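About this split. The held-out portion is used to measure sequence recovery: a designer receives only the structure tokens and must propose an amino acid at every position. Recovery is the fraction of positions where the proposal matches the reference. Here is one held-out target exactly as it appears in the evaluation file.
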């Protein structure tokens, strides 16, 4: 059974080229990606929320948990319902949203035309730490996460009012939904599969990110066939929220690179067919 998530239209015009964006654990896509989406004119931007986050329903405690592959499949099912099966899309995700992007590119390679992975990883530390966090929120609710997240989330440039807004979203998260995402992160490890990811990949790191520092993003950029690393000065773990103008430019440039690469590939194929 796939987890239940909500997919929302963030910006742009339906039936334009599609960009799907994904959230970090404890955030809402509206908050995290809204300012980026507003800067991406010409694209139909859809964003999804994690189970129990934002507009997604609370997790049903009577159902089993889910893996990252299940979460990616749930995202794809919502995309298919919204725009039609088989529609290709560019993808950008922060933290667990980036991990879902990697999973989508591995499990459904024809669908993902380009992939921006921000403040994320091919494996997120040790599984035991995630299981401990899941147990903590089930026992104590979101208060411990609200207290500890500022040190993990924000770079030095984020003003207090913006910190408070993001932490208010975190406080409203369903603890069971949060715990189940933690357990999915505990089982996620695609380090040995990065070489199979075919679309162009941009790995974006925050220089001030203590959760997924630049060397973790470099592993992704170096492991895929067509990868590039960008490090944003003064940025922590929520790059789309902290530096929306820079992230919008990077995503736009990545999509343009993907389109040029596709056009060149089609030209080479046409030339080869003509010579045959």
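Reference sequence for scoring:
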């Amino acid at each position: 059974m796939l987890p239940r998530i909500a997919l929302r239209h963030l910006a742009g015009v339906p039936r334009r080229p599609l960009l799907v964006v994904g959230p970090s654990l404890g955030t809402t896509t509206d908050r995290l990606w809204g300012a980026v989406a507003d800067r991406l004119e010409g694209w139909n931007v859809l964003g999804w929320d994690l189970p129990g986050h934002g507009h997604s329903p609370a997790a049903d405690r009577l159902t089993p948990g889910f893996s990252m592959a299940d979460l990616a499949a749930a995202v794809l099912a919502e995309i298919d319902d919204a725009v039609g099966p088989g529609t290709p899309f560019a993808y950008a995700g922060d933290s667990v949203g980036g991990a879902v992007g990697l999973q989508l590119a591995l499990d459904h390679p024809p669908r993902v035309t380009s992939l921006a992975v921000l403040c994320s990883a091919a494996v997120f530390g040790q599984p035991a730490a995630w299981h401990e966090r899941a147990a903590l929120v089930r026992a104590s609710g979101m208060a411990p996460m609200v207290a500890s997240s500022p040190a993990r989330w924000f770079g030095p440039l984020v003003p207090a009012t913006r910190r408070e807004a993001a932490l208010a979203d975190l406080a409203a998260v369903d603890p069971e939904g949060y715990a189940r995402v933690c357990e999915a992160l505990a089982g996620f490890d695609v380090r040995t599969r990065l070489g199979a990811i075919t679309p162009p990949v941009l790995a974006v790191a925050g220089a001030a990110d203590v959760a997924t520092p630049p060397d973790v993003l470099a592993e992704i950029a170096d492991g895929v066939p067509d990868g590039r690393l960008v490090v944003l000065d003064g940025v922590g773990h929520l790059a789309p929220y902290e530096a929306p103008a820079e992230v919008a430019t990077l995503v736009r440039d990545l999509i343009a690179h993907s389109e040029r690469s596709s056009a060149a590939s089609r030209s080479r194929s046409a030339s080869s067919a003509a010579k045959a």
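Annotator remark: The two ends are 49 Å apart (CA to CA).
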